[in-house]
Amino acid sequence: MANTNNTSTGKPKIGGAIFVGYDGVAVPKDAKSELTGFKELGYVSDDGLTNSNSSDSDKIKAWGGDTVLVISKGKEDTLQFKLIEVMNLDVLKYVYGAENVSGTLETGITLKANSKQAKAHTLVIDIVYQGGVMKRIVAPNAIIQEMDDIEYTDEDAVGYAVTVSCLPDTEGNNHYEYIVKKGDKE
Q1: What is the pTM of this model?
Q2: pLDDT tens across 84-141, in order?
Q3: Helices marked H in 30-88 — which ranges?
């Protein structure tokens, strides 16, 4: 039977919802473990998070028009979000690459924009469902695929809207999703 208690919105975890980890971080395997070695990327715009997880396939039709076979041609898995803490050093290092960011707000920050290859990383997104249910999305082999134009206007927060490709890990999985009721044992 249908149950309205199984519906929810997806809100960010208080104190930050998107985390990045680089070489050597332990990839979380559940929704509740503490994240060690990860950097929190601050506020995300109210557009939230979009996960495009779509297959590409060809339909083979028989004479007469019936579809008789579907051939998988691949699957693209991306995460899209806009980071709006534009003075957060961890955000700047994530977007531009750590080697392209130097200084502090107090001493002055220098950003170098170039075409150096982005580094693969682990991305973790913590989401809170209603009723105290936690969801964690873990992309162990993520890489920034694209960044939208940076707009400086009076009407909107400056930010870095990125599309992140979730590439297969050593087990062939693009990302993992873990869901648990807060307070329950793993």
Answers
A1: 0.86
A2: 999 999 999 999 999 999 999 999 999 999 999 889 999 999 999 988 899 999 999 9
A3: none
Q: Residue 186's pLDDT is what?
A: 39
Tens-place pLDDT, residues 80-100: 999 999 999 999 999 999 999
Query: Domain residue spans in the chain?
Result: 11-52+76-181
Percent of the chain topping pLDDT 70: 98
Beta-strand ranges (E) seen in the chain are: 11-12, 18-21, 39-40, 50-61, 67-83, 101-104, 108-111, 121-129, 133-147, 160-166, 176-181
**96 Cβ partners below 8 Å, 6+ apart?**
111, 112, 113
Tokens of 5: 């208690």
45: nearest Cα among 143, 126, 127, 158: 158
| 100 token code pair | 């392209």
DSSP H helices, the chain, are 89-96
